[in-house]
């Protein structure tokens, strides 16, 4: 079996005005759906970022993979690395942390690897989780991923989620998500308001949901001193505090001074960050993410490293569609030391997807591992065409939360180490 053709289709879907330390989500989120077609009629699918700089690299790398055996993952990675060369793409897909050449290569490779595993699974008649050593859990728990948000995009009608700009709004959003999806843990994206306001919101969530683990992620909007103060104030309330301060250095300063573990998807995002972060005791939990850790197999290897060094594991998410949710679920199902519920933006899609409904569902806040061959999902061709048309019409080429925010608040500055 050989790779005959690769098709990368950028898509756009409606995204609510979710606030974060760098600004606010634009009305459209961008993704790319990658289909790998073989000469034996099997097709695999992967999903990745939709910004133009990344899409161009994915298309260029895809041309180099034609003719390759779909089982030759190492060879595929080497060809992608050669195609990317020594380029470094800085973050244009939103709050995934520092850029590096390895991260760029791994991010470009990831959708191909997922698609190749999908092909391998279809050829063997087995789910992708079986190719990764087999599932250790039949369903993967996800957390309710709360955001401060406006009631709607300026100039558009309010969305069904409503405003969340104070503790009452945050609790109302949590109630909606817990009711609709059954989530059993809760994360709040912070770094939007002064830390005292966000402490109040966490305390309100604690009162409303006394039994659910809580996390707060200000995306490095605080100084180390503020991070220590917030950590002390929320002692006994958070299962972990995510990226309170910038960089391995900032995190290492905070970690020994707060009572909860520090988690990251920003200061440790590629292999070169692991040795200094471990040596300095900067993190207690890693949020893995197959989209930039080089696919599912390589992410499983990173999970092993975390086990070796006593680092806990969770999973990071950007705005994504069902192909990514399926891949995340197969991976998470196979990692024994994944000891925190994974992040997902799925509720914010509000039913929009490129995947035929049915294979992916939430039960008690968890997604049962799809049991069909490969990823166990099927692309809805009409939905893919429609969302590609939306991509062409929306005019966005990259995610830019800061410029969008400045349209309404011209003096807005991103909040790195701000408070
Ligand atoms: Mg984060």
Care to give the gist of this entry?
This protein has 14 helices and 14 strands. The chain has 419 residues and is an alpha/beta fold. It has 2 domains: 3-128 and 381-394, Enolase-like, N-terminal domain (Enolase-like, domain 1); 130-368, Enolase-like C-terminal domain (TIM Barrel, Alpha-Beta Barrel), CATH 3.20.20.
Task: Tag the structure with descriptive keywords.
419 residues, Enolase-like, domain 1, TIM Barrel, 2 domains, seven-stranded parallel sheet, 14 helices, globular
Could you characterize what this model shows?
This protein has two domains: 3-128 and 381-394, Enolase-like, domain 1, CATH 3.30.390.10; 130-368, Enolase-like C-terminal domain (TIM Barrel, Alpha-Beta Barrel). It is 38% helix and 16% strand. It is built from 14 helices and 14 strands. It has helices at 52-65, 73-84, 101-124, 128-131, 167-181, 195-208, 224-233, 247-254, 274-279, 295-308, 322-334, 346-349, 381-394, 401-408; strands spanning 3-14, 19-20, 23-24, 28-38, 43-49, 139-141, 144-147, 186-189, 214-217, 240-242, 262-264, 285-288, 312-315, 366-368. The strands form four sheets. The protein has a seven-stranded parallel sheet with strand order 7-8-9-10-11-12-13, covered by helices on one side. Strands 1-4-5 form a three-stranded antiparallel sheet. Strands 2-3 form a two-stranded antiparallel sheet. The protein is globular. The termini are far apart. The mean pLDDT is 97. Bound molecules: magnesium ion.
């Amino acid at each position: 079996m050989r790779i005959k053709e690769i098709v990368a289709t950028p898509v756009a879907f409606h995204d609510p005005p979710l606030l974060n330390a760098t600004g606010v989500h634009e009305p459209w989120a961008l993704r790319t759906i990658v289909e790998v077609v073989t000469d034996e009629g099997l097709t695999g699918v992967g999903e990745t970022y939709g910004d133009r700089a990344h899409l161009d690299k994915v298309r260029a790398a895809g041309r180099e993979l034609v003719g390759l055996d779909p089982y030759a993952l190492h060879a595929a990675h080497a060809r992608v690395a050669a195609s990317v060369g020594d380029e470094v793409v800085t973050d244009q897909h939103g709050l995934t942390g520092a850029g590096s050449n390895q991260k760029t290569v791994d991010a470009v490779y990831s959708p191909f690897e997922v698609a190749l595993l999908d092909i391998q699974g279809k050829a063997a008649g087995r789910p992708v989780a079986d190719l990764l050593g087999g599932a250790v859990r039949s369903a993967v728990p996800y957390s309710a991923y709360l955001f401060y948000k406006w009631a709607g995009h300026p100039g558009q009608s309010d969305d069904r989620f409503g405003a969340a700009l104070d503790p009452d709004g945050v609790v109302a959003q949590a109630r909606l998500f817990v009711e609709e999806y059954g989530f059993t843990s809760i994360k709040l994206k912070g770094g939007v308001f002064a830390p005292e306001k966000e402490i109040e919101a966490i305390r309100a969530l604690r009162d409303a949901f006394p039994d659910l683990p809580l996390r707060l992620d200000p995306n490095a909007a605080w100084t180390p001193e503020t991070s220590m103060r917030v950590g002390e104030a929320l002692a006994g309330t958070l299962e972990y505090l995510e990226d309170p301060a910038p960089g391995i250095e900032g995190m290492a300063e905070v970690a020994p001074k707060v009572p909860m573990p520090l988690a990251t998807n920003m200061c440790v995002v590629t292999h070169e960050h692991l040795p200094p972060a471990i040596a300095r005791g900067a993190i207690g939990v890693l949020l893995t993410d197959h989209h930039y850790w080089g696919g599912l197999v390589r992410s499983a290897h990173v999970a092993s490293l975390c086990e070796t060094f006593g680092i806990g594991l969770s999973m990071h998410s950007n705005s994504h569609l069902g192909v990514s949710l399926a891949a995340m679920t197969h991976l998470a199902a196979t990692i024994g030391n994944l000891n925190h519920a994974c992040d997902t933006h799925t509720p914010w899609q509000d039913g929009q997807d490129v995947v035929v409904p049915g294979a992916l569902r939430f039960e008690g806040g968890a997604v049962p591992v799809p049991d069909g061959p490969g990823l166990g999902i099927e692309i809805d061709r009409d939905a893919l065409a429609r969302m590609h048309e939306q991509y062409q019409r929306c005019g966005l080429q990259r995610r830019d939360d800061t410029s969008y925010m400045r349209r309404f608040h011209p003096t807005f500055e991103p909040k790195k180490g701000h408070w």
